[in-house]
Amino acid sequence: xxxxxxVKRIALDKLIDYIMxxxxxxxxTIMDMLEPLLPASLFPEQRKAFRSAFEQKNNWYQLIxxxxxxxxxxxxxxxxxxxxxxxxxxWPKQEEARNRHECNIPWxxxxxxxxxxxxxxTGCWAAEYGHKLxxxxxxxxxxxxxxxxxxxxxxxxxxxxxxxxKKDLIAxxxxxxxxxxxxxxxxxxxxxxxCQDMIRVKNFVPAISAEGSKETTDARRGEGTYDxxxxxxxxLKKHRLPYGxxxxxxxxNADAVASEEYFDWMIDQGALFCWIxxxxxxxxxxxxxxxxxxxxxxxxxxxxxxxxQKKPLFTLDFQNDGEFVGGCIAxxxxxxxxxxxxxxxxxxxxxxxxxxxxxxxxxxALKSPIFMSYYREQPFNDNLLRPCPMLENPDALEKMVxxxxxxxxxxxxxxxxxxxxDKCRPFAREWAVEAEKIxxxxxxxxxxxxxxxxxxxxxxxxxxxxxxxRPGRTKRDMTR
Length: 480
Description:
Keywords: Iron, Iron-sulfur, Metal-binding, S-adenosyl-L-methionine. This protein has 480 residues and is α/β, with parallel strands linked by helices. The protein is built from 22 helices and eleven strands.
């Protein structure tokens, strides 16, 4: 950490302390105080959105106030860790590393502490993995240390059920107070003691899997699961601890998830965010019929955008929000995944790899053939509503796996990229038609931005396009 960074940290931390003493009385001036501390090029769109929220006192303002009113023992430190360490200071370091190493460097690293899970959810590949595989404490600690060298300060646990290893996860929070840890969890192992651990470490945030109603949740996750989730949420709300919801959007729960009733329920339970993932037919046992239809996906696209205008809930729709982040964010561009066997995968849904973290360094894994193929090919489609090389552009994933010699890392049954992509092709063809309608609709508010090749791109993305002379995306192409 440079002396300049340390000065910035001290100033930003003091600003956060100042705001936390009187959030409602001091938020009107926060952006004016923040601007001199940050370069103009750092998150300009996000800063504009924050300023607008403070001025309009809208639903986003309500959410910010709700966050600032969470547990006073936790939130000042968590906000400092997430905003200052993991974003304001980390992003410039990541951008520098992307240009220096000429490969993708992630904003967040997803990893599976264990393959073990106490549930067996329909359509979940992890349900087939068994309870034998684990990344040791030292394995995870090494990944975090290597990640921090590259500027990565956000770590997200997947599984399996990560809280099977909650003792180790809390110990890692203690060892790395400059990192923010998020955990996808079924919540059945969250108890009073764990809430106290969260209060003590101040940098752990659960994302609870809950998909719509009691009926739809129990149908996929098992009888009685919804009630256990409700108990965990009640505990977190009682302690005013930050948490969110993770929803897998399927053909069976589409009406329940994309409903105002569901959003109001999440807000009432105390959730701050909701991450919505479209069901992916990953694994030989995948239930293809669970894939949402084109009509259901279009409904989700419209519905989430409507809710963002009125509900105090930060919602990410991972398939339909590609236009805000320059398309696919996997392959280390913004995130990567390491499974419980140590296989370094480009995406939590793409189980193919050339590297294992037990054999190579994190940086070497990011430079492995399939990761470099992602680096060269992203974005996979100029229509950023078709971001994924598997779901919307299945020919792209099949070709990358073949060209790079990546092996299947499925921990139960090997699945060829051809077989996986074949399951996606019918949807990809149908969605292409709908996505083009949306993308080229000149009445849409985002139309002008969509016509720009810089939409959702970071400075390092644009420098990459110049370096590799990506057709249609160089400065020369843009001035024609």
